[in-house]
Amino acid sequence: MNEATKLLDEMNDRSREVFRSVVEAYLASGDPVGSRTLTRRLNEKISAATVRNVMQDLEYLGLLDSPHVSAGRIPTQLGLRMFVDGLLEIGDMDASDRQKIDATLDSNSANVESVLDRIGSALSGVTQGASLVLTPKHEAAVKHIEFVSLNQDKALVVLVFTDGHVENRLFTPPPGQTPSSMREAANFLNALIQGRTLGDLRQVIQTEIAARRQEIDALAQQMVESGLAVWDGWGDETTRLIVRGRANLLTEDDSDHELERIRSLFDDLERKRDIAEFLELAEQGDGVRIFIGSENKLFSLSGSSLVVSPYMNADRKIIGAVGVIGPTRLNYGRIVPIVDYTAQLLGRLVSDRS
């Protein structure tokens, strides 16, 4: 039992109702909530003085905070975590939201990434947050490999996959390479690739080089190992994080502090840092997960909230992730089912087109 859940269990019904009302009013408006506002929202008729006393107790517990001298309160990160874990009511997804996301599939495009891009744009439009879509790694078997010399210090490795997908990657070849050594390196690799993915190839190639060191020319061996070095980073670099709707995070009423927070978030998104960590966040549990403020290690400096879910292929293997990021006052009850639906949609889409 975490600290937030323990506090919730120890609260009486009145405190719980006042707390729920403060959080719901704050999530709806983004403004501090005063006792007078609460007395109009509460089901039970309680005086403003009693509400103030309860709010002071909740502030003492670390669940509410007073951002200004005024009597208005906002939930703390601990308070939001308690609300999400114990009081959040998840509604059904709105039919119009579903239609807007479904409409992105009305395309004959064979390019999965372009469809994921459109889904990301629709998701940001529906949620009014920034959407993040981590595209899946390409996992088909490799059919053919070729090295192409472009100039003295630049070469291209071309990979053709069994599903017709082609990827090109620039790299710096070892010095002294000749057309002959490049052909030998490609022939060596093509003899090993049948039915194997890039991930499978790494170990096989290293074993074969060790076993056949006398057979393969030294230059060709360097070329193969240079290609391996390129592939070591292949997964992270070709797995792409699509970010859409950053403008949704800016409003005319933002304070200087809020603008600085958003600038920090934009910098993180621009660098697309720790893409692997984004998938790791999604993999840590089943279904949709909510990270609030500093709990979200990926964008913790900006104090943003992240609602994220993995999506899976037909074999129930996690291949990517989708999420919505925004201020901590996200409408979690509405966004959770939207992210959940989008993740299921992405899983079906990628499985159908594989």
From TrEMBL:
Transcription: present as a keyword of the record? yes
Q: Which Pfam families match?
A: HrcA
Reading the lineage from the top rank, the first entry is: Bacteria
Q: Which residues form the Heat-inducible transcription repressor HrcA C-terminal domain?
A: 113-336
Tell me yes or no: is Repeat among this UniProt entry's keywords.
Answer: no
Q: Which UniProt keywords apply?
A: Repressor, Stress response, Transcription, Transcription regulation
Q: Which GO terms describe its biological process?
A: negative regulation of DNA-templated transcription
Example of a GO MF term: DNA binding
Entry function? Negative regulator of class I heat shock genes (grpE-dnaK-dnaJ and groELS operons). Prevents heat-shock induction of these operons.
- HAMAP family according to UniProt: HrcA (MF_00081)
Q: Which family does it belong to?
A: Belongs to the HrcA family.
| Annotated protein name in UniProt | Heat-inducible transcription repressor HrcA
Which gene carries the instructions for this protein? hrcA
